[in-house]
Amino acid sequence: NAGVTQTPKFRILKIGQSMTLQCAQDMNHNYMYWYRQDPGMGLKLIYYSVGAGITDKGEVPNGYNVSRSTTEDFPLRLELAAPSQTSVYFCASSFRGASTEAFFGQGTRLTVV
Amino acid sequence: DAKTTQPNSMESNEEEPVHLPCNHSTISGTDYIHWYRQLPSQGPEYVIHGLTSNVNNRMASLAIAEDRKSSTLILHRATLRDAAVYYCILRDEDEKLTFGTGTRLTIIP
Question: What's the pLDDT band for B88 if we cut at 50, 70, 90?
Answer without folding.
Answer: very high
